[in-house]
Amino acid sequence: MHPMIKVRWKLRDVMAENRVSVALLSAEMNGKRLPTLYRLTSPNNTPDRVDLATLEAVLDTLRRITGKPLTVGDLLETVEVTDTASTVPQSPVKVTRPASRSKVPRVRPTAT
Q1: Which end of the chain is more exposed for a tag (fewer CB within 10 A), N or C?
Q2: Phi then psi dihedrals of residue 3, to 5 deg
Q3: 8 and 83 in contact (C-beta within 8 Å)?
Q4: Residue 58 is assigned to a structural domain of this protein
């Protein structure tokens, strides 16, 4: 069994190490990409892809703020993982429907 390669997105880590907030990064980028930056730094959302122009702008801005010669290699890390899905038997998934609720008739007010 060969280990698989996964790419880990580290923008959030690099920003934390250098005490750079999303607001500061956005402000230094003239505020143009605030929603994009929030998506790229969200702890619950690893991006599937990053636009090269955005990546260049983020790196350029981080270099200016931190004074460090940051590169793409600082934002991406390759990690070897073992594929356990093929070795671990999968338990069957049972799909059940929620119990149906009995319908309660609507009561309409009577005209008086």
Answers
A1: C
A2: -70, 145
A3: no
A4: yes
